[in-house]
């Protein structure tokens, strides 16, 4: 049987392809017909339609609004991973126009944070948690940790500075010169789902970053949780000379 024969494709996938064709060219915010109408249109079950819609939501092509319906989504936000770009410039060119401070506190580091920052177990760290938004839409939750003993009064300084990196540079003479980053997929926990206006268990992108000062010591460990349906990363590789 030819690979392109639609009879070899699951029914939900056939519905998904038809929906993709139907929404092509529609503007963001355009309402999609209810599941019942789509099931009648495609002569299939609502369960099949729901599976097709769910995949399109996960891909970021559609979005659900509880109590309102399903709509064509805005294009995903893209961030270029600038591997050799100065960290200060990355911070200054933050792609998120607005942010809301969720947590600014001093706490005892857990085992992972202690390991990443090369601290003794239970050492105190400053925890900065922010909700990042684009056009009022929640896109990511960023949680950063820095050693409290190395940066006294950091909480006070952060109330004056929007940027953690600016505060470290201006008040402590610390310039971050290098960072290690990893990206992995995770499922969204309940609290984060509420803050990001998404579903519990939705696919997310988790970026973990450890940043170093000029002397090679780690001064920041951060976890950034991005909505997988609204966000993607891009990178450009250049062959070394």
Write the layout of secondary structure elements.
Blueprint: H1 11-23, H2 35-42, H3 46-58, E1 62-65, E2 69-72, E3 77-81, H4 87-92, E4 98-108, H5 111-116, E5 124-134, E6 137-147, H6 154-158, H7 164-172, E7 176-187, H8 190-196, E8 203-213, E9 218-227, E10 231-235
Parallel strand pairs: 3-10
Antiparallel strand pairs: 1-2, 4-5, 5-6, 6-9, 7-8, 8-9
Helix pairs in contact: 1-3, 2-3
Report what the structure shows.
The chain is elongated and about 65 Å long. Mean pLDDT is 84; it is low at 83-93. It folds into 2 domains: 6-72, Arc Repressor Mutant, subunit A; 77-235, Chorismate lyase-like (Chorismate lyase, 3-Layer(aba) Sandwich), CATH 3.40.1410.10. By secondary structure, the chain is α+β, with helices and mostly antiparallel strands. The protein has helices at residues 11-23, 35-42, 46-58, 87-92, 111-116, 154-158, 164-172, 190-196, and strands spanning 62-65, 69-72, 77-81, 98-108, 124-134, 137-147, 176-187, 203-213, 218-227, 231-235. Helix 1 packs across helix 3 (46-58) and helix 2 (35-42) crosses helix 3 (46-58). The strands form 3 sheets. The chain has a 6-stranded antiparallel beta sheet, covered by helices on one side.
């Amino acid at each position: 049987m030819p690979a392109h024969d639609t009879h070899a494709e699951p029914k939900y996938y056939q519905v998904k392809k038809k929906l993709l064709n139907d929404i092509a060219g529609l503007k963001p915010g355009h309402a999609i017909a209810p599941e019942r109408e789509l099931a009648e249109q495609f002569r299939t079950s609502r369960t099949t339609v729901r599976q097709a819609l769910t995949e399109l939501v996960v891909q970021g092509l559609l979005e659900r609004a509880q109590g309102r319906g399903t709509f064509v989504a805005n294009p995903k936000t893209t961030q270029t991973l600038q591997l050799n770009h100065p960290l200060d410039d990355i911070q200054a060119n933050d792609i998120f126009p607005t942010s809301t401070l969720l947590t600014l506190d001093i706490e005892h580091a857990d085992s992972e944070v202690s390991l990443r920052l090369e601290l003794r177990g239970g050492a105190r760290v400053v925890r900065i948690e922010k909700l990042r938004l684009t056009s009022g839409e929640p896109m990511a939750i960023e949680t950063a940790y820095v050693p409290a003993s190395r940066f006294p009064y950091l909480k006070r300084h952060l109330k004056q500075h929007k940027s953690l990196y600016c505060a470290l540079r201006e008040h402590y003479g610390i310039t971050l010169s290098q960072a290690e980053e990893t990206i992995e997929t995770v499922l969204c926990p309940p609290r984060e789902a509420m803050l990001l206006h998404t579903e519990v268990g939705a696919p997310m992108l988790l970026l973990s970053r450890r940043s170093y000062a000029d002397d090679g010591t780690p001064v920041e460990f951060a976890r950034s949780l991005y909505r997988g349906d609204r966000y993607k990363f891009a990178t450009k590789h250049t062959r070394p000379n």
